[in-house]
Amino acid sequence: MLCGGRNSKGPHYAAVWRQGNLLHFGFQLAPDQMTEFGKGLLHNAIAYIARFAEDRPIAKTSNSHDETWMRPRYIADRLVPREGYDPSGLFDDSVLSKRDPSDPAAFVAWYHEHRGYLYPATADRRKLALDDELVRFGTPYDDPRFLDRLIVALADDTRADLARSLLERFVDAPLMASTFEAWQSWSKENRGYTFFSDGGRFRFYVDPLAKARGIPTEKLRGVRRADDRARVAELGPVRAEAVLVTSNDGPVFELRLQIQEGWHIYGAKMPDGEYATPTRLELRRQDGTEFSGAWDMPPTKRAKDGTVPFYEGSLVFRRRLRPADLDASPTVRCVVTFQACDEQMCRPPESLTVSVRRAR
User: Fold this and answer.
1) Which of 20, 86, 194, 346 is least crowded, fewest Cβ atoms below 10 Å from its Cβ?
2) If you ran DSSP here, which 8-state letter would residue 348 be given?
3) pLDDT by residue (tens digit) across 245-295?
4) Are 116 and 76 in contact (CB under 8 A)?
C-alpha cells in the first residue's frame, strides 16, 4: 500500500497500491481534469510501476464485495485499539467471549497475544474466530517455526492428520497428499522464500522473485522488489545508460555516459604517480560468461598544461557480445567507477550500476 488516506471509504481501502507489476491508481478524474499536484502523482505512479517488470502478483486476493472475501487481520489491528470501538462486527462469539467491556485494554492485549490463532469463521468469513485446529496444534501461524513443526508432525501418527489438514489450508503448494519426505524437500528448496498473507486468504506462498535472486523474501520488500538494476542511473554530474544494439558483427552492449557541462572524469589509463581515479568498467552476466573482444573506448582529452587524460560531454563505450551467450542470459549489467571533478573540486570515487534486458 503506497497511499492510504482518510475519506468515506473503510480502513481496508487505499488510493494507490501495488501488487507485483500491477498498480492501482484510485482517482477517477482524467489527467486533463487533474490539478498539477494530481498530474504529478499520476506521473510518479507510472514511473514507479515501470520499475517492476520482473515482479508478478503472487497472493490470490479478493475484495470486500466478493462473497468469498476473508477479513484480513490488519483491519482488526487498526480498529481494536480504538477507544470506544465495538468489535462485534470483526469477531465471532469465540473471540467476543474473551472480552470484558469494562476493561478494553485487557482485550487489546489478548488480541495481540492470540492474533496468530485467528482465522475467518466458518459461518461468516467476514468475522475472525479462534481456529480450533490451530489451537489444538499449539503453534500460531505467526511463529517462524510453524511450517517446520507442521512438516515434522507429518511423521507422527498421532498428529499427521491434523498437520496435513493445516498444511492444506495454509500453504499454497501442490503437495497436499504428499509424504513427509516430499514436504521436507519442498521446505528445503523454498526456505527463506515463503511469506504469509492475510489478504491472500490466510496462506503461505512461495516468492519466485526472491527465489530467482537468491534473496530471502523478508529482505526483498517494497521498492527492493523493483527490477534488479536500472537501465538509467544518475549520480552527481554523471548519467549512465545501458543499451543493446545490433550490428553486422552481432549484438553490442553500449554504455552511454553524459557528463554535466563543466565537469570531467578521468581516462581508463593514468600516468604513473597521478592520484586521480581512472574510469573502470566491469561487465557482469547472470551466468558469468565472457564478452567477445575488448572495450571500444572513446578518445580522451588532455589539458594543455598536463598529461592527465580525461573525458567530458557525451561518451559511448562499446563491447561486443557473443549472440549465443545473449540468448542464454539476456540481462547485461555494467558497473562504472569514476571520479568526477570540476575546476574547483573533485568528488570522491563513485560507482553507478546500470543494466539492460533483452526481451525473449
Assistant:
1) 86
2) P
3) 877 777 788 999 999 999 999 999 888 877 889 999 988 765 555 677 889
4) no
Q: Name the nearest CA neighbour of 16 among 8, 24, 28.
A: 24
Q: Which domains does the chain have, with CATH numbers?
A: 1-57 (no CATH), 58-220 (no CATH), 232-357 (2.60.40.1250)
Find the largest Cα–Cα distance for the chain.
87
List phi, psi (to 5°) of 110.
-60, -45
DSSP, collapsed to helix, strand or coil, labels residue 74 as helix
Number of helical H runs and strand E runs in the chain:
10, 17
C-alpha cell at position 141: 501461524
Crossing angle for the helix pair 146-153 and 180-190, to the nearest 10 degrees: 160
* pTM tops 0.70, yes or no: no
Distance from chain centroid for Cα 176:
28
